[in-house]
Amino acid sequence: MPGHHIPEPFCWDETFRVFYETLDNQHRGLFRSIFELQKHSDDGDQLCVMVAVMTAHFLVEEIIMKHSHYSDLGAHKHAHDDFIKHIKGLHTPVPASELNFCKDWLVNHIKDIDFKYKKQLSSYS
Ligand SMILES: [Fe+2]
Ligand SMILES: [Fe+2]
Predict the structure, then answer these.
(1) Per-residue pLDDT for 51 more than 80?
(2) What is the DSSP code (8-state) at residue 71?
(3) Is the confidence at residue 121, as pLDDT, over 60?
(4) Is this prediction's pTM over 0.90?
(5) Does residue 6 lie within any of the structural domains?
């Protein structure tokens, strides 16, 4: 399956909008964390920031899905957990192949997985 277009420079744009302001703002920050890590791939603090913002965002997203009784929560959380496990294993300097993996994962996760909850998160706006 061909993946979605990876923006270059790696920045959030309107095509990633899920129409929940908190989540869209967090997604914007996830793009920024990878963008900054690419600029400073030997900076351990920047790697920690990327892992931290991903972890925080996934928790928020999962809590909102849970409160909305969103039926696909289990599979969605599994995708988050797999990605977190992977990025927690990264070390500096983070190689370009891993940065590309992270970019690819984020773009395709938002557009293929997160997009499924559009208009489904009834308890939240
Ligand atoms: Fe997600
Ligand atoms: Fe997300």
Answers:
(1) yes
(2) T
(3) yes
(4) yes
(5) no
The verdict on residue 96 lying in a domain is yes
* pLDDT of 37: 98
Name the residues around ion ligand 1, CB cutoff 5 A.
61, 114
CA dihedral (80, 30, 6, 35) positive or negative:
negative
Which ligand has the nearest atom to the CA of 57?
2
Q: What is the distance in A from the centroid of ligand 2 to the CA of 27?
A: 6
Instruction: Compute, in degrees rounded to 10, the torsion defined by CA atoms 79, 82, 83, 87.
Output: 170
- Compute the average pLDDT of residues 69-86: 97
Tell me, what CATH number does 80's domain have?
Answer: 1.20.120.50
Q: What gap in Å lies between CA 69 and CA 95, rounded to an integer?
A: 39
> Does the pLDDT value for residue 21 go beyond 70?
yes
Annotation-wise, does 61 bind a ligand? yes
In a domain, 11, yes or no: no
Residue 28 in any domain: the answer is yes
